[in-house]
Predict the 3D structure of the following.
Amino acid sequence: MIRKEMIAMLLAGGQGSRLGILTADMAKPAVSYGGKYRIIDFPLSNCINSGVDTVGVLTQYQPLALNTHIGIGIPWDLDRNIGGVSILPPYEKSDNAEWYTGTANAIYQNLRYMETYNPEYVLILGGDHIYKMDYEMLLDFHKSNNADITLATYPVSWEEASRFGLVITDENKQVIDFEEKPPKPRSNLASMGIYIFTWKVLRDALIELSEQPGCDFGKHIIPYCHKNGARIFAYEYNGYWKDVGTLAAYWESNMELIDLVPEFNLYEEFWRIYTKSTEIPPQYIASSGVVSRSIVGEGCEIYGEVYNSVISPGVIIEEGAVISDSIIMNKCYIGRNSKLYKVIMAENAHVGNNCELGVGEEKENKSHPNIYCNGLVTLGEGTVIPDNVRIGKNTVISGTTTPEDYANNWLDGGECLIKGGVNR
């Protein structure tokens, strides 16, 4: 029988609804990040850098872009005869067919996959955070404490602690209690949604709670194990960790990459972030082009000006255009003399000539104020903006729009212009 000391199960089926139009047609882990990567590259790279060579990726919502990106795992050296990376979507069984209904339910439906490797330990990961972590250190901590479950935790500020699921530990880091978004927190150690389980403990709990609707690790599995005397410990992680689950956090995290001394360094040789790369030409910056404090991907053509921005591969920015504090994803086009301020532009979007995006008075978004905020303008994948249009702040545009969609060539701040049936 094949035996692996530890395998990883990476939960990558989330919808990511707080990213609005960016996840209308793709799962959150497939969203572009940092001018070169996709969000899922970070946990996958952590796995291979930590010596974890068997990874099951659980997909569900809009998986096409994610599946295409992962392929057979070559960029992460996960194309193995034994182990490697496996895509694990929901599937029809002989007795039933059901979607994944919770994080633990998704793992339960793949018990057979895990049993194939008969692991000693199972590492549970989310596919939607930006961080670098050596999972081998996490495993060593788990072993040294003879733990049944180890939770990776992150110390947050006391002011923000009430926003998180928190763990309370004794002086030996053993978990004695849990708090879910308490108004008066007793701890500032937030659960990162990263767990190591001793295999037998995980398997028994999953089987015992298999009938629990929407079975979830934080709500059901871990409290059940705690109640039944499992040894649960909290590993404190103090590196960079960012949940990019909202547009504001996503924009902020990308902007942090271009700080003079970035807190999160993408260029460290000893802990590389791997990704699928296409064979495209190097970037070209024309004599009229200006690039300052920005990341610019391969295959870009810069004839205009770029400031404090993250530009993904294959983008064309025409002469006279000015891009500031923006995230421009793969193969976008910005026309002549257009001005973009705090814009998130999804893949293959097109802005015409003489446009201004992110201008005027800031107004609350009328439909989704908690998603489209912080003065951002968000363009969905494949969106087309015609020439001579001005667009206000906290707006979202998706689809092929025409001059008739803009009264007096203007879209007021806080408006949503969605064409083609997408409701995000």
Notes: The chain is about 15% helix and 30% strand. The CA atoms of residues 284 and 301 lie 5 Å apart.
